[in-house]
């Protein structure tokens, strides 16, 4: 068993960085098929083909087809497509250009760095521009309302299911105008406000740090910290907020910059990939809460 | 184009994805700051930055008949159009939804009811009090579409 695991690790550690990044991307598309119902089987079939055939993995045709599907997904779903759909399209376009140019390594490494840096720069900009993020309201409401945060909220804030349900009923109250206070309106506990404010500050700090680290010139101290920051961000964020697809996409872009000699960094990315898989498939926070 | 030309073109265009990201994201930031599109959508990376998510928006459609106002139930077949109108309530999208509702009313409505004059659609977002988390609705787009008007 350990022999087999060591063999798999050696293969992953020695793989060209572009191949590893593209394979992770295809694994992500298999685990989390994207797009409207009619697009999903096509994404899955092409991802499986790329994983099974090394020739297909390097073929421009595969990446052109995947990019076309990603663009079709954007066009047919407009305006309801989120960040993930756009970032996937840009990353697949980079893979297409890399395959056409025959320069997988250089083009994917450069685009991976820029796309992560720019995505985090815009995410930070949006948070700074939004008054209801900066003053903590976003997390105060989301911790109550968003079911994806439910296990975390109950664990970190110490709310029981009845208290959480009462608060959820309040924030989901249908309102066309100004809210008229309820006679026995539930009040958010101080700990909820404190946890939300801590999440607000830490999210802003880590996203800004990732943006700066990925956009800084290579070789600088800040730039060298980028892999650690991204792996920590993905493992921490997507373990709490189970949005696996976006996390894996970011990790694929990060690993595209890891030379084979950077074994520890590669391992960190692969562990983060596994953490996201594990955390989004297994309710570990619920198990922790029940202890 | 020969293979060598394609190769050279692709190498020259290798920065295209990053430029497209900047272009689309900058356009989305401007559009969402000046118009009714939800910051969560449109490729500007505004997800998880505001409580104004499309899922928290709601929409009312009202049929106007000879001075009477009748709140319309939004049919399941128009679910996608309603979702799009909430995400990006542009005039064009609201007008299209009104047309679809009008057609649906003609098919399924009571033939004896007073003639339909217009349909008004209003999209609301929700704001929350910072301390109490109490929600308040705020109209962000509204359109009155006379029946039969193009």
Task: Tell me, rounded to a whole number, the average pLDDT of chain A.
Answer: 91
What share of residues of chain A is helical?
A: over 70%
What's the helix-strand series of chain A? HHHHHHHHHHHHHHHHH
Q: Average pLDDT across residues of chain B?
A: 92
**What is the global morphology of chain B?**
flat
Topology of chain B as a string of helices (H) and strands (E) = HHEEHHEE
Low-confidence runs of chain B:
none
Largest interface: A-B, 63 and 56 residues
Largest sheet of chain A: none
Q: Could you tell me how far the N terminus lies from the C terminus of chain B, measured between alpha carbons in angstroms?
A: 46 Å
Beta strand % of chain A? under 5%
For the largest beta-sheet of chain B, the strand count, sense and barrel status come to:
4 strands, antiparallel
Radius of gyration of chain A: 21 Å
Strand order of the largest sheet of chain B: 2-1-3-4
Give the strand tally of chain A: 0
Number of strands of chain B: 4
> Helical segment tally of chain A?
17
């Amino acid at each position: 068993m350990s022999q087999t695991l060591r063999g798999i690790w050696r293969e992953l550690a020695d793989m060209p960085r572009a191949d590893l990044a593209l394979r992770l991307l295809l694994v992500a598309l298999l685990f989390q098929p994207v797009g409207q119902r009619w697009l999903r089987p096509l994404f899955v079939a092409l991802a499986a083909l790329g994983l099974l055939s090394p020739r297909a993995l390097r073929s421009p045709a595969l990446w052109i087809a995947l990019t076309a599907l990603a663009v079709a997904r954007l066009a047919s779903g407009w305006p309801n497509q989120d960040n993930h759909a756009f970032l996937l399209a840009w990353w697949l376009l980079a893979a297409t250009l890399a395959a056409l140019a025959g320069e997988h390594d250089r083009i994917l490494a450069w685009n991976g760095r820029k796309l992560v840096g720019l995505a985090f720069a815009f995410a930070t900009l949006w948070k700074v521009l939004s008054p209801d993020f900066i003053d903590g309201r976003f997390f105060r409401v989301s911790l109550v309302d968003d079911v994806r945060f439910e296990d975390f909220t109950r664990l970190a804030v110490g709310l029981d299911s009845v208290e959480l349900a009462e608060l959820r009923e309040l924030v989901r109250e249908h309102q066309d105008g100004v809210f008229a206070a309820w006679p026995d309106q539930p009040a958010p506990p101080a700990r909820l406000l404190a946890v939300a404010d801590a999440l607000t500050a830490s999210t802003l700090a880590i996203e800004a740090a990732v943006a700066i680290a990925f956009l800084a010139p290579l070789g600088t101290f800040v730039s060298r910290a980028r892999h650690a920051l991204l792996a920590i961000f993905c493992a921490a964020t997507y373990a709490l907020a189970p949005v696996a697809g976006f996390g894996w996409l970011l990790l694929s872009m990060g690993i595209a910059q890891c030379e084979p000699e950077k074994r520890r960094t590669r391992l960190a990315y692969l562990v983060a990939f596994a953490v996201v898989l594990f955390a989004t498939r297994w309710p570990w926070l619920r198990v922790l809460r029940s202890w | 184009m020969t293979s060598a030309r394609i190769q050279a073109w692709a190498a020259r265009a290798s920065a295209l994805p990053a430029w497209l990201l900047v272009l689309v994201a900058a356009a989305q930031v401007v559009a969402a700051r000046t118009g009714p599109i939800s910051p969560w959508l449109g490729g500007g990376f505004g997800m998880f930055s505001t409580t104004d998510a499309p899922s928290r928006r709601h929409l009312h459609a009202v049929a106007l008949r000879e001075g009477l106002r009748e709140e319309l139930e939004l049919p399941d077949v128009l679910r996608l159009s309603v979702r799009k109108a909430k995400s990006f309530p542009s005039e064009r999208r609201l007008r299209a939804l009104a047309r679809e509702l009008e057609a649906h009313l003609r098919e399924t409505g009571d033939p004896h009811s007073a003639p339909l004059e217009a349909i008004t659609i209003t999209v609301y977002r929700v704001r929350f009090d910072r301390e109490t988390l109490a929600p308040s609705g705020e109209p962000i787009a509204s359109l009155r579409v006379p029946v039969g008007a193009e």
